[in-house]
Amino acid sequence: MKRLKILQRSFRFKVTLIFILSMLFVGGLSNFLVYRFALNSQFNELRNKLMMVAQTATLMIDADMLMQVPLNHQGANSPQYKIIFERLKKIKIANPTIKYIYTMAKTETEGTWQFIVDPDPLFPSKKRQKLTSYPGDKYNAGRFPEMLRAFDGPSADEKIGADEWGVLLSGYAPIRDKSGEAVAVLGIDITANQVYTLQKGIHKRALLALFLGVILSLAVGVFVSRRITDPVKKLVEATRRIGAGDLHYQVKIRGSNEINELADSFNQMAKNLSESRNRVLKYFYDVVQSMVRILEARDHYTKGHSERVADYAAKIAAKMGFPKENSDLLREIALVHDIGKLGIQESVLNKQGNLTEGEWETIKKHPIIGEDILRPVILNKEMLAVVRGHHERYDSKGYPDRLSGSNINIFASILSVADAFDAMTSERPYRPALNRQDAIAELKANSGTQFHPRVVDAFLEVLKEERGHF
What we know:
Blueprint lengths: L1 H57 L4 H5 L11 H16 L5 E7 L5 E6 L20 E3 L4 H4 L6 E2 L4 E3 L2 E11 L5 E10 H52 L14 H40 L7 H15 L4 H12 L10 H4 L7 H7 L2 H9 L6 H9 L20 H15 L11 H10 L7 H15 L3
Antiparallel strand pairs: 1-2, 1-7, 2-3, 4-6, 5-6, 6-7
Helix pairs in contact: 1-5, 5-6, 7-8, 7-13, 7-15, 8-12, 11-12, 12-13
């Protein structure tokens, strides 16, 4: 039993684990794909925004004025520089996310550009020298393919890049003269920290989605595994009950899947087994009852004793409120309660005089012999206890186990009263039969000592109802 429970728990655990891991894998993969998609979508949206801002900003720049800025350090003092400087500064103030905004033009060297106007030049630091972005200062644009394509139209870096100014993401747009020719490029930069801050929100949402996915996977995994393992558990329990002899047990599983079909087949099997056992038991009872009748036929004093006792016992059980199923079962077992006397020598069983002590001990073995005879075919332990205990006394002076009070099976106590009454009212070789009134008086006198009081009271009511009086 313990091993069976361990296997059941192990099966449920494995099914639950498989479902949870499967759902976690699917959920995690989905979450990862959605997360990557969200990151890519946000990054592309950010690139488009940088291109749009850069392109819009070029509308405020006069290309002809820009190209008049002297390309040397003194150019920063020119009127043209100062006008462009103020316009770029206003664009930056209007867009707080912009870290740097600047304009550049090509040089004769492929991939090398030069600054024209930058409102945020890097001045020399006392700790270390850094490049400045004065007019004419060179810049290696060849490191950034999207920057090189900016003369053809708006563009933005496809990934975060690093240069002398830091780790940045940049957008670009061409500055065109009146003829529509691109003469310079306007660039805007945002720092990587700004990008990471934006992505941090997606990280949080992804982690929250993952956490909720884990919780949902656990809940659904447990729920689904129970939907699978509970029916299996019921089938295992049914198998155990059937194995223990409870052939009336039925598995109750709702639904219309394969497990339900298995349960229906199992129930039909149990029903067929029950019908087969009933046929075997009926045949056995017929044989045993025939043997009891043969036993009673050898002694005309006990002829019909088992039938009368069975009838009395069933009526007492009904009077005490037991279900009809119990009273019918008691009637059947009462019919064969003395089957153990087949193991007693006839010379002892029908002795005319008083029994010796040894002979009496032999007689007292018949309940145990009867139990041994019936045990192979009667799986109901309570009914076997009736056969074994029908000579036990309420005061513990009976046999074979000297049980007392409530320790005696109640149906055995019922059979004891029915058996004693029929014995007292039947003629025996060693004494005449008592009349009905004397037998009732004996029952009352021995209530609480030899007999169970409740059983005696119920039997007296049965007898009174049969005659209308005692």
